[in-house]
Write a structure and sequence with these properties.
Layout lengths: L1 H15 L2 H18 L1 H9 L4 E7 L5 H11 L3 E5 L4 H9 L5 E7 L5 E6 L7 H21 L4 H8 L16 H38 L2 H5 L5 H33 L1 H4 L3 H4 L7 H26 L8 H22 L6 H6 L6 H11 L5 H28 L11 H11 L1
Helix pairs in contact: 1-10, 2-10, 4-6, 8-10, 8-13, 8-14, 8-16, 10-13, 13-14, 13-16, 13-17, 14-16, 16-17, 17-18
Length: 416
């Protein structure tokens, strides 16, 4: 037991102190803080960056109303009535005096039309704003030509009333589903990247020790099975340390900025009211998913003798994680689909799919519990089988980088 704890804490502390771990953690935390304060950062850089648009109004009537409507929609775009020729306006745009040149005129039906000229049309934000304002004005003018009152015009463009009501008891409302969808989407990414990153780290750790012949020294004093589980738990603690730090910083940053996030991106993603059950399910399925793939990665890493071969060996495992993630992305829009429900009980897909269903739907309690039980059973079976393969795999050297070597590793375990 002392040897097991020694390897566990050695794995944890040695990885915790590495420059790569410290740098990636700091960078990730800074990115999370940056995203949480994104609106403030954008406002800081845009506070003095009003875009000036030169306007040649050939009608003599459109500039004033368009300018007023644009101010109500977007104060960052300024319109200036330009009295020069089109050629002079184009020259001023090319020299950077104006962001663009807007030429207003009437068509054959006496309705507004426009031409927008800029050095580049790659930026579609400003033209879209101008087109939207001009479209509103055209609609109003067309309505006045056929003698429609403002009330009648409002009725035409009034959105149709369309409500969705769930008949099932305790079903989520449309608002709750929108919030759950965004939050589950974010947490699925966390689970996906964490499982891939830390499972790969375990495989690389085993392969590195084996290629450097350190493994030969270790197995003389500690059994390979103890090594395997010590490394899995050690890197598991490392992953929980890093994820806890990132999530706590992210949660605190988001809470501090909720007032500036209302009604936008962050409200859609449900950060204003995070359900405790969703966080609990995310944590449970993250830990179980980690142990499932970590056990698989450990014995796959024990089969290779060179670090260069590790990616080839763990590629099928990575593909299973990717497949589960893609099915979960599909399930965000159709969480009740039979395909999603069935695949959520396949152990390698359960961490993401069952979590997605539990977060999106009002499932009976037995379904997530069954998913957890399936994962625990799969982890135990994989751990028993993986320990046998690991025990023989660490003794194999040479060009052993195919799944046929699992049989060789098992034979070595029997002969040991």
């Amino acid at each position: 037991m002392n040897n097991f704890m020694t390897i566990l804490f050695h794995t944890y502390l040695s990885k915790l102190k590495t420059k790569s771990f410290i740098v990636t953690t700091i960078i990730t935390v800074l990115i999370v803080v940056g995203l949480a304060n994104l609106s403030g950062i954008i406002d800081f850089f845009n506070k003095d960056s009003q875009e000036e648009i030169a306007v040649i109004d050939e009608t003599g009537e459109l500039f004033a109303p368009i300018s007023e409507q644009l101010k109500a929609v977007n104060k960052e775009i300024g319109l200036e009535n330009y009295n020069g020729t089109v050629e002079n306006g184009e020259k001023a745009v090319k020299e950077g005096e104006y962001k663009g040149l807007l030429i207003l005129s009437y068509d054959q039906d006496e309705l507004p039309e426009a031409i927008y000229k800029a050095k580049s049309i790659a930026d579609s934000a400003i033209p879209s704003e101008l087109q939207s304002v001009l479209q509103q004005m055209k609609t109003q003018m067309a309505a006045s030509q056929i003698n429609l009152s403002p009330e009648q015009l409002g009725k035409i463009y009034e959105p149709v009333s369309f409500k969705q009501i769930a008949l099932e008891e305790n079903a989520k409302t449309e608002e709750e589903l929108n919030q759950a969808r965004g939050l589950v989407y974010v947490l699925l990414f966390v689970i996906y990247f964490a499982v891939v990153l830390y499972a790969n780290m375990i495989a690389m750790e085993v392969a590195t020790e084996k290629s450097s012949r350190v493994m030969e020294i270790l197995i003389s004093s500690v059994s390979p099975i103890k090594q395997m589980f010590a490394k899995i738990l050690g890197i598991g603690l490392l992953s929980l340390t890093q994820m806890a730090l990132i999530l706590l910083v992210g949660y605190y940053s988001i809470k501090q900025n909720l007032s500036s996030m209302e009604g936008g991106f962050f409200e859609f993603f449900g950060f204003g009211n995070i359900p405790a059950s969703t966080i609990a399910y995310a944590l449970i399925f993250f830990i179980l998913g980690y142990f499932l793939y970590a056990t698989l990665a450990a014995f796959l890493g024990s089969l290779v003798s060179r670090i260069e071969d590790i990616q080839q060996m763990i590629t099928p495992m990575t593909m299973m994680v990717v497949a589960g993630f893609m099915i979960a992305m599909f399930g965000l829009n159709q969480p009740e689909a039979s395909f999603v429900t069935i695949t959520s009980y396949i152990p390698f897909f359960t961490p993401m799919l069952m979590f997605m269903r539990a977060g999106m739907l009002s499932l009976p309690v037995w379904e997530p519990i069954l998913g957890i039980a399936i994962l625990l059973a799969a982890i135990i079976l994989l751990a028993v089988f993986g320990a046998r393969v690991y025990r023989g795999g660490v003794l194999m050297y040479g060009n052993s980088n195919s799944f046929k070597d699992i049989k060789k590793a098992l034979l070595l375990t029997k002969n040991d």
